[in-house]
Design goal:
- The protein is an alpha/beta fold.
- It has two domains: 17-48, no CATH class; 49-226, Beta-carbonic Anhydrase, Chain A (3-Layer(aba) Sandwich), CATH 3.40.1050.
- Helices cover 42% and strands 16% of the residues.
- The chain has ten helices and six strands, in the order ααβαβαβααααααβββ.
- A six-stranded mixed beta sheet has the order 2-1-3-4-5-6, covered by helices on one side.
- A hairpin with a 4-residue loop joins β5 and β6 (223-226).
- The longest helix has 21 residues, at 166-186.
- It is globular, with a radius of gyration of 20 Å.
- The mean pLDDT is 94.
- Bound molecules: zinc ion.
Length: 229
């Protein structure tokens, strides 16, 4: 066998082997879950992915759409970013990870449901609230990318200006920002087209982590209401 050609030269002081605890967890997955579901994975590899839904959720480690919906691999096309935000449609030739993921899901995978999943105690919303309020915390003062990303929240922050205490306004912004992202989504031409052709529907969810409750945005009354269990 010929020796493999190096992909690139990166210092092994920078890029390290997998930490022991992850190797152990992987071995457990491979020897257990994978062996039990081998045919499912082979099917996924052969026929590709056909997820019926896309979920845009926060990068927060406590938010797990797969666990919430009892999902199996192949069930959801998932995009995660800070504070589960959808930026405005802006085809300016720059790098747009979230918009690219949405475009792929809608135009190539032709998903039927696009869900924005927000959550309680969101650090991104908390930081964005303070940035919009002009009270940016010390930790973010040196940040390069985070404040710019969080300024997507500015219109939703302005809409909630009448609410008084900070905690109430932050909670309000967690839900208000989901509605704002839905409205940004609806302005993407290919999203609008898919909705008008009956291919796609949009959904806004907010997850109360401690209580385990899921709330859905009801566009008719303009509020989030609990999903029945
Ligand atoms: Zn979050």
């Amino acid at each position: 066998m010929r020796a493999k050609k190096k992909l690139a030269s990166l210092s092994d002081e920078i890029v390290r082997p997998l930490p022991e605890y992850l190797s152990t967890r992987y071995a457990t997955w491979y020897n257990g879950h994978y062996q039990d579901h081998q045919s499912h994975y082979q099917e996924l590899a052969t026929y590709g992915q056909h997820p019926p839904a896309m979920i845009i959720s926060c990068a927060d480690s406590r938010v797990n759409a797969m666990s919430l919906f009892g999902g199996e691999d192949g069930d959801f096309f998932i995009h995660r970013n800070i504070a589960n935000l959808v930026p405005p449609y802006n085809p300016d030739g720059d790098h747009h990870g979230t918009s690219a993921a949405i475009e792929y899901a809608v135009t190539v995978l032709k998903i039927s449901h696009l869900i924005i999943l927000g959550h309680s105690g969101c650090g991104g919303i908390h930081a964005g609230y303070h940035a919009c309020n002009g009270t940016i915390d010390e930790a973010l003062k040196q940040s390069i990318f985070i404040p710019k990303w969080l300024d997507i929240l500015a219109p939703a922050f302005q809409d909630g200006a009448k609410l008084k205490p900070d905690a109430e306004r932050i909670h309000d912004l967690e839900q208000r920002s989901i509605v704002h992202s839905l409205s940004n989504l609806a302005a993407f031409p290919f999203v609008r087209l898919a909705i008008s052709e009956g291919q796609l529907s949009l959904h806004g969810l907010w997850h109360d982590i401690g209580a385990g409750k899921l709330h859905i945005y009801d566009a008719e009354i303009g509020l989030f209401t609990p999903v029945g269990v």
